[in-house]
Amino acid sequence: MGSEADLGSTGSVVGYMRRLRERAVRLWKGAFQLQRRSGKIGVFLICTAVAGGLWYLSKLNHEYTVDVWLPIGLVNNPPGKLLVGERHREIQLRVSGHGYTLLKVKRFRTELSLDLRSLWPYFTYDTGGMATFRGQQLSALINRQLPSGIQLDQLLTDSLRFQFSEQMSRRVPVESHLRYSVDELSMQTGPVRLNPDSVTVSGPRATLLNIGSLPTEEVDVGLLRSTYEGVVALRHPNDVDVMPEQVRVTVPTAQYTEKVLTVPVVLEGLPDSLVATLLPASVKLTCRVPIAYYDSLTSSSMRLSVRYSSVELNIPLRVEVQQQPSWVQQVDFDPKSVSVFVERRP
C-alpha cells in the first residue's frame, strides 16, 4: 500500500505527478540560486510555495489507512417504540483510500444513516429496554454508505446500544406562564383564556406519566390597557411530540369606572315559623366595573346575605357577598353588618 505499482490504471497520473515533482525540485533549486545572487527573497518564497503545493498534491494521490470518527443519524422508530436520548451518535472506523478522498471524508465528516425500523429484527435485547446492534451487521450497512473510493478495513466500534421506551399518547391541560401587568386605569375582567386549553402529547411512556400539564413559554407582554390576544408556544421535553404546539392566549382587560348601588340584604336559613326584620334592609355598595358593562350592572346583579342563627339573635350579623358578575371587582359596602329582629308568625 502506498506504492505506485499498486495504482493500476492510474499509472499515467503517477508519471505525470513524478514529472511535476522533478520540475518543482529544479524550480526550487533555481530560485535558491537566484536569491543568493540577487537577494530577491520574494521570488524565492513564491517558488518555495509553488513547489510545496505540487508536493502536497502528489502526496494526496497515495493510498493511506486512517482511523476516523463519523457521525450517525438515527431515523424511523421501531413499531410501538421510541428512542430515548439523542438521535445522533458517532462511530469509529478504520478505512483506506487515496489521500484526497480521505481528506474529503475527514474534513466534511460524512454522516451515515441507520434506519431503526428496518434494523429492529437484528437487535438483541436485555432488561430495562436496552437494545444492542452488533458490529457484523453494522459493518455491511456502513460499507455501503461510504463515499466512492473509500474501503472499510475494520469497524473499531464493535456495537451500538440504544434505550427504547413504549410509545403512548394522552391529553394534558395547558398552563399559562404569560407575564403582564394591568394599567391602573384598567382592570382584568376575567381569567386568562387558553384555546385550546388542553393538548395531545405523544412520546415515551415513562416521560408522559410524569407530565401533569404543559406550560406556555414565559412571554412578557408588558402593560395592558385593553384585552390582549396572542399565540404562544408550549414548552415540552425534547422526546415528546405535542399537537398543537401553540395555543391562543386571551387576557380580557378593559378600562373601568366606579359604580354605586343600593343592594338589599337577604336573610337565609330563617325557619318558616318566624318573621324577621333587618335593620338596615339594604346597604350602599361600591365597585369597579368595566365601562362597557356599566349599564348592565344593577342591584339585582349582586346578592348580599346574612345567615340566621338563633344563638346570635342579639348580635349584628355580618353581610357577605354571595353572587356577583365575574367582571365586577373591588366590591365594598356599608354597613358591614345588620341587626335582625325576629318574631313568631301569628
UniProtKB/TrEMBL annotation:
Record-given protein name: YbbR-like domain-containing protein
A UniProt-annotated Pfam family: YbbR
Leader sequence residues: none
Domain of life assignment: Bacteria
